Amino acid sequence: SALAQIAFNEPAYYVTRYYDYLDMFGLQNYFYTRYSYYGYLDDGIRGEDMLMANEQSAKDAPAMAEEKQAYKSRDLTTVSKVASDKNAEVTNLPAGSTGSVNRLEVGPPPPPPAGDLSNIKARKNFNETAFFFPNLKTNEKGEIIISFKVPEALTKWKMLGLAHTKDLRIGTVTNELVTQKELMVIPNLPRFMRENDKIIVTSKVSNLGENETTGQAQLYLFDALTNKPVDNLFGNKSAVLSFTVKKGQSANLSWELNVPEGIEALTCKIVAQAGKFSDGEENVIPVLTNRMLVTESMPLPIRGKNTKKFTFTKLLNSGSSSTLKHQKVTLEFTANPAWYAVQALPYIIEYPYECAEQVFSRYYGNKLASHIANSSPKIKAVFDSWKNTPDSKALLSNLEKNQELKDVLLQETPWVLDAKDETTRKHRIGLLFDLNNMSNNLNSAFNKLEKLQCSNGGFMWFPGMPDDRYITQHIVTGFAHLDHLGVINVNTDYKAWNMVQRGIRYLDNEVRKDYDWLKKHYTAKELAENHLSDIEIQYLYMRSYYIDKLEIQSNCKEGYEYFRGQAQKYWLEENKYMQGMIALALYRTGDKTLPTKILASLKEFSLNNEEMGMYWKENNGGYYWWQAPIETQALLIETYDEISGDQKAVDDMKVWLLKQKQTQDWKTTKATTEAIYALLLRGTDWLATEPNVEITVGSIKIDPKNMPEQKAEAGTGYIKTSWNGTEIKSEMGNVTVVKKDEGVSWGSLYWQYFEQLDKITPHETPLKLSKKLFIERMGMVGKSMD
């Protein structure tokens, strides 16, 4: 007898039977087993049993015949007679089995039952590089055989090869390879899902075969973390879909899902089967929560003896949202940030390189540390407190504080090593103020500096290099700072004075050479034009410290006076850094009028606000040494302090300088030395101020002096306290800060809460971001942006 599927178009009648007896052999039931049992009538008289596989084709007839004969030998009774009645009775069935025969009209057979698609292997490896072999050699025939396993992406691959001979003759080869299947599943999945969303997942089934094909596709959903099925949670009720695809065309399938809460990642597996062909693809999709942890903050800056009230409006109004959940409110406050400058001293002392600038910074830092430690017993007590409390938060890098309030972990940022380095240096601050250690460091740094001074008095950057005017002027000026502040006495320190004196004579001669060159190459009229350079301005500033200590040689006076006159005439053409140097140089050499005008001009261009203090918008960094924001601000602090005595302006400028140190170092050793010089030893002595601040958050009063659990750090007066969950009240949005001492203090109130995404409102801050989209069009005159 022919196979059933071959004879489907011929018979007038056919019979479908259901046998409970087959359950004994693992053939569970009609719909969910791989094999289906069909009855077939030959010539409408005799019944013949047949077992056929859903995926078998005519070419598998011999194998199917064997299966058929095996099952017939089990005495499965055939139908002996077919009644013309629609419900004919079936007889001679084995004991315990039941059956029925239905008479059907002539027509197409029913579709084959659904197969089990769970065993179809889905593609997972979608690597974009199939192979990379950097070193291949030919065999004796000059051939290269490449063996590789292609990733599972269905796409077009490009193979690129580069070959060369021993004498470097080069050749290239390019080939293309297409990976495809006769039946292909191409899902169109979202990049992520969001909790409580309704989403339609779509997929395309493509038929590259020669005939139209009919089959089924199924969507499987698993929790990516536990690999447990989650179809019910996502409402995937119609997981199995049927499709019919014509030759060379595609069919679109879709499943509607409801995304539940609590699933962090979803494994989405789509498989399809049509006849003997199958395909599938598996991907992992992140499931994002519909709620988000939001961190908002309010700065708390205050200066001098003052009382300020701050209002955190959004926290005050938080009770109006039924879905908002408080997480944490954190208050942190630093009563005396000037101590951050002291904590920066190890940076300049321990910098590892041996160039002249950093060797001098080491000397400068040790001299300054010795002076600070010996100038006040109170200050030394703070250092001892830090040294004897190695786990003190005062010794943590500011980057390492408050990590629980940051959106990105410090370990995930480029600044992690900077933070660890800073913390390590701070933990060694106790060694810095050890008197014996300081003495050894001072002698070592000075001896190295002596070796870097050339015979003509100039300093070289590194041993073996020529002398350099810039670094010589920087070092000689640094000695002047120490002398000007009473840290050393240059005149009585023989070794230091000998070094400084030789350096000054060298610089005087360099300026004389510059002037001689100008006279040789320019006419008298041209000499009146602007020939002032940054190196000459730095010289005038340096020389003003020593104008009464070491007279200018007679053959150098003309050059000195020429460039001083140039500074008086062309100061407006210089940047703020150079203008500050010119003002100080002129003021110290008898000109009291023009420096006052320079300061007035500087003030006109300055900006001033409560949080940032006084600063200049155009004070930006750059490539050249005179484009240095920290050094510029430090020099202008010195300028205002010495020329006008404007204490308020000086303190306002200190605020900006300290804000640059709020989280990290002052970038370079040179910037750090200048900043420490300006902060610690100019204007009000903020280190000597005893922090005295009272803070009220809502109805909670915080006074570290009377609260042992809120004990402030020594020196900085830093405190930090938090409230969690139900402890948080909306009234905490009202904060009052009472400062009873001079100087600057700052802090912040941080509020963390969970809220649904559609209810989160923007938080207004001084930093504003805007986005604009433009269309580039090609017109008659070229490209234009609309």
What would you note in describing this structure?
The chain is an alpha+beta fold. Helix content is 30%, strand content 23%. The strands form ten sheets. A five-stranded mixed beta sheet has the order 8-14-13-10-11, with no helix packed on it. α6 runs antiparallel to α10, α12 crosses α15 and α14 packs parallel to α16. It starts with a helix and ends with a strand.
Structural class: alpha+beta
Radius of gyration: 43 Å
Please identify the oligomeric state.
single chain
Predict the CATH topology of the largest domain: Immunoglobulin-like
**Biggest sheet, open or closed, and with what strands and sense?**
5 strands, mixed
| Amino- and carboxy-terminal Cα gap | 77 Å
Helix % is 25-40%
* SS summary, helix count: 20
Q: How do you describe this structure in short?
A:
The chain is α+β, with helices and mostly antiparallel strands. The chain contains 20 helices and 29 strands.
